[in-house]
Amino acid sequence: MTPSSRWLWLLRVLWALLAVVAVPAFAGALDGRSGPVQLVAAAGLWAGWLAVLVATLVPAPASLTVVRLLTPGAAVAGVVAGATGASAVAATAAVALGLVAGIVAGTAEVGWVFVQSGAYGDETRFLLRPPGPLVAGPLELAWVVLAATTGAGPLLLAAGAWLTGAVVTAVAVVLAVVLGPRFHRLALRWLVFVPAGVVVRDPLVLADTAMFRRADVERLVLAPAGTTATDLTARALGPAVEVDLAGTGTIAMGGPFVDQSDGRNVPIDAFIVSPSRPGRVLAEAERRFYPTSPN
Q: Which of 118, 138, 156 is the last residue of a domain?
């Protein structure tokens, strides 16, 4: 068992335990509510729990999106339960376990297992870190609004607040349709090693997948401060990896994190990306006999 797969198994165990630990909290919160409210709340909670469990058992980029969208909801649900009738002990246990599960789900190790599970043959994928401008607030805000409307809409309908419930549910559906694919793009941003060379797949900064033949890649190193290499990081936080080319190539820039004045076709002789595990990227580059030492 690899270290990364151990993290995935830890997530599976934590999520399975959550089904036991959180039941007293949710039962206490629902005690005394109407039958329809209890039914809808229980169905929603179990559906979310089951979706994450299945996603952890079938790792893939799409599964990663499901896991990272739903696991933070466990801690939030525990807080709501504590505020609506659950005992302090039961609510605290549910929140604590939910937080730990959410943290594990967000680790680079878990992310790597999910994206690598969809690889073909001798292909190694590395997930890129999310854009800095998104993690500074917009991403979290979008998740909160989506989670709030998704949870509140059906419960309002179950409680008999038909008009308000219908409006909130409609908003939730629209947000899911609009935001779902955008959240999923974060799981589709990769630096990839293939036998023929190096590939960058990033729908946020590239209009098309960028492919570089092995002979065209001179070296891969940690990006030094002040590098002039073309920035494909989408302003992600943390260290970047620089890929220097033996000559000049062309990439098709495009997407919400690209300065449109740059144009779509950009000549480059080096570029930087921000993988979630830069050290592992360089280790894989060495394994594939790419130079990894600075000049």
A: 118
Is 240 a member of any domain?
yes
Q: What is the number of other CB atoms lying within 10 angstroms of the CB of residue 226?
A: 5
pLDDT at 262 over 70: no
Of 118, 144, 166, the last residue of a domain is 118
Residue 177 has pLDDT above 60, yes or no: yes
Token reading at 55: 């996603």
User: Is 45 contained in some domain?
Assistant: yes
Structural domain boundaries, residue 109: 1-118
Q: Check pLDDT > 70 for residue 260.
A: no
Query: pLDDT (tens digit, 9 = 90+) per residue, 137-152?
Result: 899 999 999 999 999 9
Q: What is the pTM of this model?
A: 0.91
Longest Cα–Cα distance in the chain: 71
Identify whether the C-beta of residue 295 lies closer than 8 Å to the C-beta of residue 254. Answer: no
Mean pLDDT of 244-258: 85
d(CA 190, CA 241): 13
Distance of alpha carbon 167 from alpha carbon 161, whole angstroms: 10
Position 38: which residue type?
Q
Query: Looking at the 3D structure of the chain, how many domains does it have?
Result: 2
Pairwise CA distance, residues 126 & 95, whole Å: 31
- Let me know if residue 230 belongs to a domain: yes
Is residue 295 domain-resident? no
* Confidence at residue 264, expressed as pLDDT on a 0 to 100 scale: 73
